[in-house]
Amino acid sequence: MGGGGGGGAVLVRFLTRRFIGEYASNANSLYNKRLSIDGRQLNLEVFDPCSQSSEARCILEEPVDWADGFVVVYNISDRTSFINAQIILRQIREARTDNCKGDSGVPVCLLGNKQDLCHARQVGEDEGRRLARESRCHFQEVSAAEGYQDIAGLFTQLIRHVMEHLKQRADRRRYSGSKSVAKLINNVFGKRRKSV
Ligand SMILES: Nc1nc2c(ncn2[C@@H]2O[C@H](COP(=O)(O)OP(=O)(O)OP(=O)(O)O)[C@@H](O)[C@H]2O)c(=O)[nH]1
């Protein structure tokens, strides 16, 4: 989460179904939620970084190493939050490419929040869509103030993508593991078999 665009409110909407207009959000928060998706029981951990930090860089230091997916939120009526979102998306890609040996496919969702304030819009929907395309992530405009269904649907979709991505990574690791075991067996026994 993060971006300075009402990410806290989006997350609270997802976790509690409620819109809480003003709440103390001047610290990093870690939430746990048990939920069931496609018949599977999951323990979801969500880290919501404090957006008051002076640099976008600080926001991501910790979760970028352990998170399996990201939701980046900006405010459609605040261009600065959109610029922050751009920086954060770039950081996610760069950090994940360095840390995870080229694994840049971590699921990310870009949300343009406060759609109810479209009369004061500073960021076009097409700009959000373009940024998402460039960053290879999902995009949608939402309003934490107005609805639960869209936000719940987005989180559910993201979690499905995360599970699929983790499964693919595990399969890849298993496959390359079994290939190297096969190679090892060949190396150890291959020559001997020839000489028999
Ligand atoms: N009109 C409107 N206001 C919203 C919406 N979402 C959040 N807000 C308001 O925007 C302000 C900031 O929201 P927070 O959730 O605290 O956002 P933040 O922590 O500054 O930003 P993040 O870094 O994205 O978490 C609060 O006053 C919220 O009530 C929305 O969808 N519509």
From TrEMBL:
InterPro entries found in the cross-reference section: P-loop_NTPase, Ras-related_GTPase, Small_GTPase
Gene3D superfamilies: P-loop containing nucleotide triphosphate hydrolases
Keyword annotations from UniProtKB, A to Z: GTP-binding, Hydrolase, Nucleotide-binding
Highest taxon of source: Eukaryota
EC number, as in UniProt: 3.6.5.2
Enzyme class: hydrolase
Catalytic activity entry: GTP + H2O = GDP + phosphate + H(+)
A GO term, aspect molecular function: GTP binding
SUPFAM superfamilies reported in the protein's UniProt record: P-loop containing nucleoside triphosphate hydrolases (SSF52540)
Entry annotated with the keyword Nucleotide-binding: yes
Entry similarity comment: Belongs to the small GTPase superfamily. Ras family.
Name listed for the protein in its UniProt record: small monomeric GTPase
Organism, scientific name: Cyclopterus lumpus
